[in-house]
Task: structure prediction
Amino acid sequence: MTLVAQSVEQPTRTKRRSPLAETWDNLRKSWAGMVGLILIILHILIATTSPVWIPRDPLEMNAKIRSQAPSVEHLMGTDKLGRDVFSRSMVGGRVTMVVTLIAISIAVVWGGLLGIVLGLVNGRADELIMRFVDALLSIPWLLIVLLIVSVLGTKMWVQTLTFGFTYGILTVRVARAAALDFVTSEFVLAARARGERKRTIVMKELIPNVRDVLLVDGAMNWSWMLLGFTSLSFLGFGVTPPTPDWGFMIAKNREILGVQPWAVFGPVVMLGTLIIGINLFADAFAKALGLDRSQGAPV
Amino acid sequence: MIMLVIRRLLLSLLTLFIISLIVYVGVEALPGDSATGYLGQWATPESLAALREEFGLNVPIHVRYLNWLGDILRGDLGVSMVKRKPVIELIGNRFRNTVVLTITSALVGIPLAIVLGVIAGLMRDKLPDVIISTTSIVAMTLPGFVTATVLIYIFAIRLEWFPAITLVPSDVPVIELFDTMLLPIITLTMIMVAHILRLVRTNMIDVMVSDYVQMARLKGVPTRQIVFKHALPNAMLPTINIVALTLAWLVGGVAIIETVFNFPGIGKLLIDAITDRDFALVQGIAMILSGIYIALNLTADLLSLVLNPKLRTARGH
Result:
């Protein structure tokens, strides 16, 4: 009697993990990425809550305690006008964060949408616009921003729109390239074969797929934008005093660098940790999403 | 191929033209014109009107623009109202200083970046690579003025090896500027090296795992020969593009570095001119810098075309 061993295969029930959970898992494996994420979150928390818990009024001047070394009352010492460096460093990122975060959102949205549409259409209008984009990108960035700022002034909304516009242009290229990749792929062809209208294709198929690329690119652009914005502040074309601002603080307190270096290093540490955090996170995020991150252009 | 070259050339000229428009209209759109800037607090409606007539400001803007453009093409960059001197005279020495600064940084930085990049690529994830890569990431992502300030603190203040800022005027012979140039050169070099090194490293890594290198290994070719005769030349190709682009970046970045070190260069002159509302000077410098930037980009593009035949038939981007 032959025993026919028949293995009855139960279909294995694998839990379907959402792409979000999968990405999060991948991200967790990279300790650099997690460090970066923690730094970013810390900075956002500090920027939003600091006015509540800082020990001193960041605007309070006291000529009697100018340029003092760190002490118990002043954790990072005082600057040359007697203001508490620690408190100013904690709130110094607020304007920077608000401007850059809003600007990067604007940039990703308008650059992304235009890029996707161009990638879809890919006709003569596309050619023309891309020529124009290339021409704009060929202009030294510093020049454009300086000109716009000196013409329109240094109000926050002006700077936000300026950065949003210029970085949106960078995003258009990336979004268009990503969209072009997908346009020739199968599911978009299938959608078109089904006779779906362009708008439906954009909403249902393209955006979710291009979104990953845009997120990583957006994170990197945020880092460049911080660089640009703080450089402007450093040159004196950014935030107007006496509002505390990292770039401006670094510029003004260089005079006492020999005597009280913490007046400069306070904002340097804050700015540095934020930028490095963003870069660490963006790198790890790109890998977690399975994207090949290309070299960002130096601005 | 010739068509491509001509197209790129025309595109560059078009860009330069667009820039001239932006520069001219942008600066002219500043609140207050040359007349108010010139007279300052002594401005009265009568004197303003008279001055405007003399400066030719009553002519419509497009006529003024065309005149200005014509002058530039003939080499006349106009006269600075604030400093009462021809723009070319004001730029002269400063341009020389900046050129010396950037060329020196490039001559030091590019070979250094290649060497370090190759080392980092060959010793991937080992200690030399970790040190090199970490330092370059930090130098690359931090703003230039931060790196510069930290370097000033370490080398000028603590160690007192170099002077912190430049106190000599712009027209001294280059030799005298030398010791004040050292820190700016180091800063610029660091940032340049960081950018270029990353690419060299990545290319080296890619090349070393490629098929023909594996083949060479299997054939028993010694590693040294593999690196120098096969890997290196191929890793270098895309690097040339990045080098030209980094030099182009310098056009913007050098302005900030010069400001940090108070170096008498054309970058700092630009920043000062904007602060002073010195229109003619801003326009003149902006055009020069843009011209150089575009020329460098064009060179980078053409070099890529020459070195990578695949790009010659590729359509668009």
Notes: Residues 293-299 of chain A have pLDDT under 50 and may be disordered. Chain A touches chain B through 46 residues (CB under 8 Å). Residues 23 and 288 of chain A are 5 Å apart (CA to CA). The radius of gyration of chain A is 25 Å.
